[in-house]
Task: inverse folding
């Protein structure tokens, strides 16, 4: 019983392979995300998580001298805060694009170049 052919029966009933298309149903209209959505989403995630990862990395590095224990932790948090600030800037620029896209009604502006 090492046959690799697919079975044609399941639970004693013969399987039917039908190539006809599915019946038409409700039409699906795919709407793309508006401009600026992904920079906002990514910027918020980076702005929230970067300081935490900075603290995590700073505490993992640690210090050899116990009297300077906060040195790597401080620098890790500082770098995380700077990266988080860049994420916040990305979120704000994306929000500006979202507002502009909503005001224009989502239509693309086309300019004809004189040439």
Result:
């Amino acid at each position: 019983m090492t046959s690799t052919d697919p079975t044609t029966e399941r639970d004693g009933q013969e399987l039917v392979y039908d190539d006809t298309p599915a019946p038409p149903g409700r039409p699906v209209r795919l709407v793309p995300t508006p401009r600026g959505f992904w920079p906002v989403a990514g910027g918020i995630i980076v702005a929230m998580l970067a300081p935490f990862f900075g603290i995590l990395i700073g505490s993992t590095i640690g210090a050899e001298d116990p009297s300077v224990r906060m040195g790597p932790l401080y620098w890790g948090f500082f770098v995380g805060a700077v990266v988080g600030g860049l994420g916040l800037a990305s979120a704000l620029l994306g929000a500006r694009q979202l507002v502009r896209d909503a005001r224009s009604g989502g239509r693309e502006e086309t300019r004809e170049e004189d040439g």
